[in-house]
Records
---
Amino acid sequence: MIQLENVGVDRQGRSIIAGVSTQLEAGKIHVIIGPNGTGKTTLLNAMFGELALAQGQVRFAGQTLLPGKARGKFLHGWRDTFAYLPQDTAADIALTVLEVVVLGRLGKLSLHIDDETLAAAMERLEQAGIAHLAGRDIASLSGGQRQMVLFAQVMMREPKAMLLDEPVSALDLKHQISLLDLVRRETRARDWVTVIVLHDLNLACQYADNLLVVAHGKIQAAGHPRDVVTENLIEKTYGVKVEVLTDRAGNPVIQPVSGI
Ligand SMILES: Nc1ncnc2c1ncn2[C@@H]1O[C@H](COP(=O)(O)OP(=O)(O)OP(=O)(O)O)[C@@H](O)[C@H]1O
């Protein structure tokens, strides 16, 4: 479980997130939604130790991240059990896809890459459905293909917590579903604490066990989408008129209502 207690982060003297407290259970998918610039990436970065906490604390795997910039050995140990896929997956680097995936084990690699590591990297590529790209240069791939390669790379870390910032933003519908299905399967099977930032509200409602609605640097609502999503909440959060319908599985479907 990741526990956030009264977490706050400032940037350039401005409070970006403040007073964030929540518990993120293992084996579940926690989806963060919210308008642009409201602190979703900041929240992931705070959990990863990338941004210093101004207040509060984050607890995970028997360790506590406190205010101030975590450094050196502590930060290394803290991040050891996290996998983090950032929003920006640009990769202007002369490596093949297989090499990029192997780098997911960076902390454990020696000069000689053993057969087990190569087999594990190929297995992750197969799981992501992109084994056929193994020999391609990463720089020659499309944005969506790169997103899947970097997901295969973070799976190589064998994490306890998976932090994914808009992991399907460049993927077509079929690949969005296959990646999120894979994330759900692995989250359940490996007991990851999975936290995903998504902009697609309907994918968020379909995949979240726990939906965190972030606006103005605070969690405005949290819980199962069926329990938290209302027309009023979405309208207040995004300033857009919507209708909330229900799909066959009973999950909310958010339909914007045209102003015409
Ligand atoms: N390097 C930075 N220096 C100062 N302020 C920053 C920096 N990066 C982000 N911010 C500010 O922090 C706020 C939150 O940004 P953040 O990236 O967390 O938002 P977000 O909710 O993830 O947005 P998006 O949906 O657009 O990705 C924004 O107001 C942004 O301008």
Note: The chain has nine helices and twelve strands.
---
Amino acid sequence: MSRSLPNIIITGTPGVGKTSHCELLAERTGLKHVSVNQVVKDKECHEGWDEEYQSWIVDEDKLLDAIEDEVKQGGCIIDWHACDLFPQSWIDLVVVLRVDTATLYDRLIERKYPEAKLQENIDSEIMDVLLQEARDSYDEEIVVELRSVTADDMESNVDRIEQWLKQWKENNAS
Ligand SMILES: Nc1ncnc2c1ncn2[C@@H]1O[C@H](COP(=O)(O)OP(=O)(O)OP(=O)(O)O)[C@@H](O)[C@H]1O
């Protein structure tokens, strides 16, 4: 499929900094921030609310239908804590953000996450769940793991993705 602009997934455990990265990247590049959280809420792509986890139970088919037209046009930054549901043909780059356990713990406590959800997310980060999911779902060469502990990390990550975008445009110029 040919797109005039690429699609990027920014993924990682909740609290790693996906939304912060996507917002900055969208501001710098003009690419569109597709917040899956927001789409799930706005377009009701869910099967109800999970009280224990305090989150929507996502209906993935409905979600894919809701974003398909937009994503197929290209130029989207998809912000979501999973990546295996998006067809490989839609995606040009998968960025997996990573953080150390103590930092993640502090960020999730700040958000007043329920205990079960907090523990599950910490375990998921320790066990590289999102990195593995990305590697299992996409070609190795489009998956990049980046550290997101400090504001400087975020700056350099966004710089790096901007460089990648520039190169992609050069490689795909018609
Ligand atoms: N690289 C970073 N340096 C400093 N603070 C950060 C960094 N990344 C994220 N944060 C802070 O951590 C908190 C969580 O960030 P953010 O909401 O972007 O995470 P998220 O991965 O999008 O979470 P969710 O999946 O729940 O939406 C915010 O308070 C944000 O300011």
Note: Strands lie at 8-11, 32-35, 46-50, 55-58, 76-79, 93-98, 143-147.
